[in-house]
Design goal:
221 residues, Rossmann fold, 2 domains, four-stranded parallel beta sheet, 50% helix, globular
């Protein structure tokens, strides 16, 4: 909802297709390639209109952009896939690269550090844009942590199959964030937030995760 709030404030005409479902990544990563393809095909037809598709998740964005063309190679849906995937952008990517903006007039008092979500960083090449947006949030002090590019340990089914390793990775990430004195860990992906916040809550630690859309929507009505 805050992503929509921000986009509308920036002058975008935002529509939401209530029939949309998953992009297919969880099934694909778990090895269910045929099932993933069926879900992905539905995604293509849910978003076949020629407009920008903006997602609050670098993970979903990266999966569609990097794997759909191979998934639909030599099929009747490949042309539609090639028309849609260039129009799909992660939220901060759309703001900084399409709208060419880095100061949205947001206000959030406090100290924060930014976590580079794997999907955004490694699959979409998103690095500086979110930081530029956060540096222009009034009242927010942005500090870098040592492990900013290290995976938080969620990784979808990885956190289920390899739970002890996954928790250890969350511990490393949150410890690095705490060492900066930050009150918030800000990121682009809800999956990372969920995983780190689970570790934070389990250990009663004095820090909180926030999605960058919530930060950029703060301080104005």
């Amino acid at each position: 909802m805050n992503m929509v709030k921000v986009l509308e404030k920036l002058g975008c005409d935002v529509t939401y297709n209530a029939n949309q479902t998953c992009c297919g990544q969880p099934a694909f990563n778990a090895g269910y390639r045929d099932e993933a393809k069926e879900v992905a095909r539905k995604f293509l037809y849910d978003f076949k209109d020629p407009s920008y598709i903006v997602s609050p998740s670098g993970s979903c964005t990266g999966f569609v952009r990097n794997y759909y063309d191979k998934m639909f190679e030599n099929s009747a849906d490949q042309l539609l896939c090639q028309k849609i995937t260039p129009n799909l952008l992660e939220f901060t990517e759309f703001i900084t690269q399409v709208l060419k903006m880095d100061n949205l007039g947001a206000t959030l008092n406090g100290k924060a550090t930014y976590h580079d979500a794997c999907g955004a960083l490694r699959e979409c090449g998103i690095k500086q844009g979110p930081r530029d947006l956060l540096k222009n949030v009034k009242g927010l002090e942005l500090v870098e942590m040592k492990e900013c590019e290290t995976c938080c340990g969620f990784g979808g089914t990885f956190s289920i199959k390899y739970e002890p390793i996954s928790i250890g990775m969350a511990q490393t990430k949150v410890k690095s964030a705490l060492e900066t004195g930050a009150q918030y860990i800000i990121t682009t992906d809800v999956s990372c937030m969920m995983h780190m916040q689970g570790y934070i809550d389990s250990n009663n630690l004095p820090i909180k995760t926030k999605h960058i859309a919530d930060v950029l929507a703060s301080g104005w009505s």
